[in-house]
Amino acid sequence: MNNQLQHIIDLDEKYYMGVFGKRTPIYFTHGKGIYLYDADNKPYMDMIGGIAVNALGHAHPKLTKAISDQAEKLIHCSNYYYIESQAWLAEKLVNMSFADKVFFCNSGAEANEAAIKLARGYFYHKSAPRSNIVTALKSFHGRTMATISATGQEKFRTPFGPTVPGFSYVPFNDIDALKAAVDESTCAVILEPAQGESGVFPADKAYFQAAREICDATGALLIVDEIQTGIGRTGTLFAHEQLGVIPDILTSAKALAGGVPIGAMLVTNDAATGFHPGDHGSTFGGNPLACSAALAVLRAIEEDDLLSNTISVGLFLKKALEDLKQTTPLISEVRGMGLLIGISLSLPKAVEIKSACLAEGLLVGSIGTDTIRLAPPLILTMSEANSFINAFSSVLKTIQ
Ligand SMILES: *Cc1c(COP(=O)(O)O)cnc(C)c1O
Fold first, then answer.
1. Nearest atom of ligand 1 to the alpha carbon of 192
2. Over the stretch 329-354, which tens digit does the pLDDT of each residue have?
């Protein structure tokens, strides 16, 4: 281990709160395309992309230019004033989606906070208050108080109770359970098109369509959390487009500005009535820097046809992993949409595989002990995907 790395680890252990536990023992000094480089200039193929954030990879010329041009002019001014790139980004997101209106914040959790408040405000301002929100087991919606309350995994809530009241949880992809849980007291249902944080479990199309019908029948709003699945990750700008369902509220973050922190809530005109002036806001949300970065990401997705690339390279990867599964008993299942892929293992070796990949210059994610997650940049080429498969299959051969 080089001295500088050991020094950084020592500082981290001494001064940084231990929320991330022992991290992967490496730090990167720069990146280019789908590669990250360590201090010795050793390349690592980045197949996790900052957890579905680096949609354009690293140091993408269009994104770095947009950020540096904007930084030279204006990084931040208050939302007291009109903001040029914020107006353009709002227009672009509306033009590219179901939405009529947009709100900007700084993270996924904040976007979901806004969505939860909006759903309650919607019924309050109609003078027919409702507060109950139904979410799915194994979901993940963030780390703030309201979003851990929305998250259907007890381990995120237990130390921090009492959590925000009004949330209940149903098994994912179970239409009857959802039907039984939603009634005229429900203000919203929150669902992910694929549950990314619990192992990449895609929703059934029939389930999403039933969720839409159940919401329509009871008046509840349908909130789709596309923080991980959005911004081209699954081959359409948003994954719900493939499920044949239009939400009332959609939350976005992660890849939206390619690594610059931003969150967004996209809503219909009807849902937008849930916030009156003064009901919500943000100091940083939608500032000139973040909005210019997000505009560059959305433009690159269009200009460079990254949605088609995501579909074709995603299919290639999934097929290659399915083939690998035939000869590798360690792989028990391959799931995913586009370039969001979960590889289930028949043994609890995810962390071991992740370390072995690192040694071979491959960055993959692990979820729990038995799932490997891939969420590479959307610029991944077929030949890069092919070299990943070759390298990954060699690594798996070394795992006993
Ligand atoms: C990452 C994620 C969040 C939380 O986003 P942060 O930016 O970490 O607050 C919420 N929902 C889903 C589906 C996510 O993947």
1. 13
2. 999 999 999 999 999 999 999 999 99
